[in-house]
Amino acid sequence: MKILAVDTSSTAASVAIVENTKLMAEYTLNHAKTHSQKLMPMVKELMDELGLKPEDVDIYAASSGPGSFTGLRIGITTVKALAYATQKPVVSVPTLDALAYNIPLTDSIICPVMDARNNQVYTALYKWEKNIQVKVTEYMGIDIMELLNLIKGRNQKVLFLGDAVHTHCELLKKELPEKCGFAQENLWIPRASSVGSAAFLKAAAGKLESCFDMVPFYLRKSQAEREFDKRAESGRFLQD
Question: Is the pTM of this model over 0.85?
Answer without folding.
Answer: yes
